[in-house]
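Schema walk-through. Below, the input block comes first and the output block second. Nothing else is stored per chain. Lengths vary across the set, and this one has 158 residues.
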Amino acid sequence: MIAIIALGQELRGDDGAGLEVVRAWQRAYPSSAALPSIRVEYAGLAGLGLLNWLEGVDHAILVDAVKTTAPSGTLFTLKESDLASFNSGSAFAHGWGVAETLALGRRMGVLEDSLDITLIAVCAAEFTPGVGLSLQVQRALPEATIMLENLVQKFLQT
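--- output ---
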């Protein structure tokens, strides 16, 4: 089972990027999105609830907005082991971050040792209240959608 988890707050500007990437992927790749081996979750306030969505899956793809020094709209992927390197200069847009949640889940034994987690990070800059993504993040959506589909296909083959 592959879990695709879109993280973010639509009412905080670019923080909704993860949600929009997954929606765009579902529109662009409906045959992949409809596979019974894929489960899609939308998490406006994931927090520790993220651990529940990771139960019983082999691969998880998290899609989230991040604050970094990179230009808004920059995309990159991180494996779970890379998340620990996120320091105070770069953080997830919401308080209790993905890295802390996953680390806690591993320490508590809630997450399967074999669970493979990848994050698609969308660098964002605008987190003020209001609906809508910045132009830079909007322009990154097609590439992020392709990145997501490539990961899905990779995991389907394993």
